[in-house]
Design a protein that fits this description.
298 residues, 6% helix, 14-stranded antiparallel β-barrel, globular, mainly beta, Porin, 17 strands
């Protein structure tokens, strides 16, 4: 088994180099080390590559559950076709470091409360770190779970604040999820709507629609058409429709490969909430692959 696990790990890491990107998204499962790599293939002649690593400790105690984690994402943008007219090298490499803390408490009648606090740094790091590089994101929601004939359903109600939709703002957390049978489940709501099908004991397919975004501060000078800007922001947002294949190698290792389509894409540079440049990002295909290690399998 150890030999097989090593083989699977090597295969997944090679695949990560061969395919493309997608930013790490914390799953509902805790106690994971996750690696992801992906690519947005063509946002109006801009290629968007992301690499991420995250460590998530969720179950330190049984009741209530307290967890914490840290994540780092490196984004690289290729402006080759645009650099002939202006210099966008300032935004070619973006960094995001996030620390998050979770608190989950059982209430009554199968209701639970979840609180998340996640301060993070999002910057080009071309100058010294400033307060403009930091955002304090947070979320709170209540979840009701019930069963009928052994099949679980849940209702989630809440709200959050952060860069889920681009520029920091408030957003709703609302969803209804229900298992149709042992292999098929669906979820309707925001930020994720999807259907989830279990192929067998080791693998499954997820069909989802969810927002993707990046919001990064740049403290260094950015020059455009004889104008100089020293407090600019790069903002990317889109709706991603995706198919993800997940495979469980053993009780510790799992991997996923996804193909997606980005629509309603926007990629802009702004200062003081005024748009400096709009890349008029078009729709794009995306590829991503990841691998996860359960670091607390009981």
């Amino acid at each position: 088994m150890k030999k097989n696990t090593t083989y699977y790990l090597i295969f997944s890491l090679v695949s990560m180099v061969s395919f493309g990107q997608e930013m790490f998204t914390t799953t509902n499962q805790g106690d994971l080390v996750s690696l992801e790599y992906g690519n947005y293939l063509d946002l109006n002649d801009i290629q968007f590559e992301n690499k991420s690593v995250a460590i998530d400790f969720t179950s330190l105690f049984n009741e209530p559950i307290i967890g914490f984690g840290v994540a780092y994402t490196n984004n690289k943008l290729d402006f080759e076709d645009y650099d002939r007219f202006h210099d966008y090298s300032t935004f070619e490499e973006l960094h995001n470091v996030e620390v998050f803390v979770r608190y989950k408490k059982a209430l009554f009648n199968n209701w639970t409360m979840d609180l998340v606090l996640a301060p993070y740094l999002s910057s080009t790091l071309n100058e010294k770190i400033s307060r403009e590089d930091f955002t304090l994101s947070y979320a709170a929601n209540f979840t009701k779970v019930w069963s009928k004939e052994g099949l679980k359903s849940s209702l989630k109600l809440g709200a959050g604040y952060g860069t889920l939709l681009g520029k920091p703002n408030f957003y709703p957390l609302i969803s209804y999820s229900s298992a149709v049978n042992e292999n098929f489940r669906y979820k309707i709501g925001f930020p994720v709507t999807g259907v989830f099908y279990k192929l067998n004991e080791q693998s499954g397919l997820d069909f989802t629609a969810k927002p993707k975004s990046i919001y990064v501060n740049n403290a260094s000078d950015f020059n455009l058409i004889n104008e100089s800007y020293n407090d600019s922001k790069l903002e990317f947002k889109a709706l991603k429709l995706a198919i993800d294949y997940k495979f469980q190698f053993d009780k510790n290792w799992s991997s996923n490969f996804g193909v997606g389509y980005l629509t309603a894409s926007e990629l802009t540079i702004s200062e003081n909430e005024n748009t400096i440049y709009d890349f008029e990002a078009n729709n794009s295909l995306s590829l991503n692959i990841g691998i996860s290690l359960n670091i607390n399998n009981k």
